[in-house]
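As the next step, I needed to go through one protein, both as residues and as discrete backbone shape codes, included below for the reader:
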Amino acid sequence: MAKIDSTANNKEMSVEQKLKALYDLQKASSDIDKIRTLRGELPLEVQDLEDEIEGLETRIGNFEGEIKKLNDAILSKKNEIKEATLLIKKYEAQQMNVRNNREFDSLSKEIEFQKLEIELCEKRIKEYTAENKSKKELVGSSKTLLEERKVDLNAKKGELNEIVGETQVEEERLIAKAEKIGNSIPERLHTAFNRIRMNARNGLAVVCVDRDACGGCFNKIPPQRQLDIRSRKKIIVCEYCGRILVDDEIGVE
């Protein structure tokens, strides 16, 4: 049967005292776990909502920047149309005073070119206007979703703050108690406790013998080993799951 060396650093504590301290440390740690379980996934949900809100605000900002660029592009194309229209009028006026067909044809080509420019600008304006409309719809839906997420965040924060408010004092008391107990036992033993607790289901590093079985993995413990556990002369761990074993009366003394 595996054992944890309990002889090293703290001669003032008997093995029985160490076992009692480990049991009390486990109880305080389990009570802290219960408080944190009560909060459940709320802290993560709050963080997720905050991240989503930040993403939506960035998205809206990007869309609004794109809308401004599209508006500027539409205005620019309208100005180009005005300039092309003025040129057409100018060239048509010049056609009235040409001296030959070559000059007339040259002006006609310029007029035709400006008309094509106007058609191209109008096509671009239609494209930009459609894209602009789509972006505005996305901004609208994003703002609606943003407001919904802000409402959700406020509700989750309120719920979390209420739970924290109800449990914070007790949690701080238990954390202080666990730290005090942890400091009272040898460092090597405390490290072993933390390692077992980290790897054990439900964070149970110390368990009682219950109905002749390990209270963690429920494997049967031989009668002689149970006597050794009840004698509290050495620290014994379960050979199946590695948890520290104590008798069921240690918590009532």
About this structure: The beta strands are 206-210, 213-214, 236-237, 244-246. The chain has two domains: 15-39+182-252, 42-166.
